Amino acid sequence: MTVAFDVTDPEVIEFFGVTPQKGDTNSITFGIQDLQKPFQSRNTSLLGYLEPELNNRLDKLDGNDGYSRRVRAALVEVLPRGMANIEDVAQSLHLSKRTLQRNLKAEQTNFQLLLNETREMLAKNYLLNTDLSADEIAFLLAYQETNSFLRAFHTWTGQIIQQYHKGK
Q1: Is the pLDDT higher at 48 or at 86?
Q2: What are the CA-CA distances from residue 45 to residues 14, 42, 58 (Å)?
Q3: Residue 64's pLDDT band (cuts 50, 70, 90)
Q4: Which pLDDT value is given to residue 105?
């Protein structure tokens, strides 16, 4: 399939943020500053399928309706974009890192515990409700390496992914 567009069209320039240049070959060249930006993805069809159940499960977790719930909800949104640290979540909640830490401590929890719980819940949902591979799930949960995800999953469930998958 060939897609043609006018490189001088103002909408094209606005979309790309630069004026595209025609060349002899089909290629896209990125500047180093573009490559250093975080990769952001959004799979709206998958999110639409999973979101109602995820929100239902988030509501049931620990009965916490305060900051813990808000952190879990934020994590569901930011993890697929590779954002898994407290600074990212605090920013998405429009709080300082320190304020978020204090509020979580008041609820007798911490960010790392909520991150692990949310990752576990999402991993189980992905495995039971999709055909995503371990690599894809690791990516969606913001793990740098698939092996880290596999070890974490075994710690959570005492099973390897294939055993858990067979149980569905």
Answers
A1: 86
A2: 26, 9, 20
A3: very low
A4: 95
The pLDDT score that the predictor gives to residue 90 is 94
Alpha-carbon span 87 to 167, nearest angstrom: 36
CB of 34 closer than 8 Å to CB of 28: no
Dihedral pair phi/psi, residue 108, rounded to 5°: 60, 45
Look up residue 146 and give its two tokens. 């698939």
End-to-end CA distance of the chain: 39
Cβ distance 161 to 153 under 8 Å? yes
Is 139 within 8 Å of 39 (Cβ atoms)? no
> How far is residue 116 CA from its own chain's centroid?
13
In single-letter form, the type of residue at position 47 comes to L
Whether the per-residue pLDDT at 101 is higher than 80: the answer is yes
The residue type found at 110 is: N
